[in-house]
Structure formats: structure tokens, C-alpha cells
């Protein structure tokens, strides 16, 4: 996600944005899926394009579970070690819906506000 | 390799002291499982890189604690909970120390915000308070806001 000649402060701003959207990303990838830690990290990287530090995901999973948005269970693999699988509770599904709606609304509003800037930037090229 | 992993997990666990033992055991097991998965992918020589990608033990433990403080505070707006959450925050960061000190200092000050403004702030935190408690309400609202925003 690094950009050449990105204006100063952009990377830290993007990092904050990514951090802020991580909860929604986790709930979204667990929608209709049961996944364990690394699976969640991989899916977020592939589908959302978020390059997240691996250590950031587990404390958030822990909190979402404490908040009753997620359930978890240790499952023995046929081969290898046991893994902790997560899935959404009904409260978590409600949360995912609410956050998705808020995200959609926010995204549309920001798109509308930013469109003139991008149009001008293209015209200046 | 096992020694490096064991030492890393021990450091995380020692920094999670105070949390329920079951929770700490679960956290450590999950991290061990994560490391084992990554070793399967990358091989044993990559262990130091794998651990560095997880983060320093103290930072990882701090993140767990911060998330749990946030969770506890979000579930209730009761003053003692916010005070307790801020105290936990104060034990982790300097900002937390300032916020906690601010709450203690401001809890019973001679000045007060206007009751009308105070009630509007309180309604946001679902805390119904009387006029005599306006300052406390404002202080705790500010503390709650800071606790929520610090992540």
C-alpha cells in the first residue's frame, strides 16, 4: 500500500483509517463463514487489500468476543494443531449490518465531497 | 526454536497478569497456534520474522489490555466503570495517567458547566444525572470519549 512520493502524513492517515475499519472488515469476512486467526488475516488481505500487522487482529477478536459479537471454539485439525474458529453471533450480525450501512452512507458522502477535487486534479494533468 | 517461542509467549502472559487465568491461557494458546501455522508456511528459520510480525510482547499485551478496557467501558457508562477503565489505561500509557489525573482533579471542583449543556452531553452517554452532578457528568463524559477515541 506504500506510494511513491506520497504527501507527508498520508501514510499515518491511511494507517488510522485502516485501523478504524478493521472491526467492520473482521465482521464482514466472518459473515456466513467460520474462520480462524490466520484465515481471517489472509481473507482481509485478499478481499479488502488491508495490509494489517498480524498482532493487531487477535486483541480485536478477543474484544469482539467479549462484546458478544463473536463466538469461538477450539477445533482439532485432522493434521496439525488445534485452531480457534470464530463466527458471528446474532448480535454480531446486527452489528455487521449496522456498520456496513454506516460505511456505505459515509463512503457515498465522502465520494460526493471528493469528486470535484479528483475531477480538478485530472483536469490539471 | 521452541525456546524462542516459549520465551515470547511467557513474556506476553506475564504482561497480561491481572486478567482471568482462563483468558490468558486462551490468548497464549491462540498465539501459539498462529505461530505454528506461520512456521508451517514459512519454515522454522523464519521464526524471528514471524514473532516480529506479531509484535513485541509488551505491545501485544498492551493491545489486548486496551481492547478489553474499551470493551468493559462500552458495556456500561457507570462512573466507577469509567474510572476503573481509565485507571487501567493509566497503567499502560502516559496519556492514560493524564486522563486519570484529570478525572480525579476535576471530580469535585468549585466550577461547573451549565446544567443545560451538561444534560445534553449526558444524554449521549445515556447517563441521567441531576443538576448537582453536572460537573461529574461532564468529566466522565470526557473520560469516556477519550477512552473510546484512544484506539
Can you characterise this structure?
- The complex is a heterodimer of chains A (125) and B (151).
- With 125 residues, chain A is mainly α.
- Chain A is built from four helices and three strands; from the N terminus they run αβααββα.
- In chain A, strands 1-3-2 form a three-stranded antiparallel β-sheet.
- Chain A is elongated and about 60 Å long.
- With 151 residues, chain B is mainly alpha-helical.
- In chain B, helix 1 packs antiparallel against helix 2 (21-42), helix 5 (79-90) runs antiparallel to helix 6 (94-106) and helix 5 (79-90) packs across helix 8.
- The longest helix of chain B has 22 residues, at 21-42.
- Chain B is elongated, with a radius of gyration of 20 Å.
- Chain B starts with a helix and ends with a helix.
- The model of chain B is unreliable at 108-115 and 117-133 (pLDDT under 50).
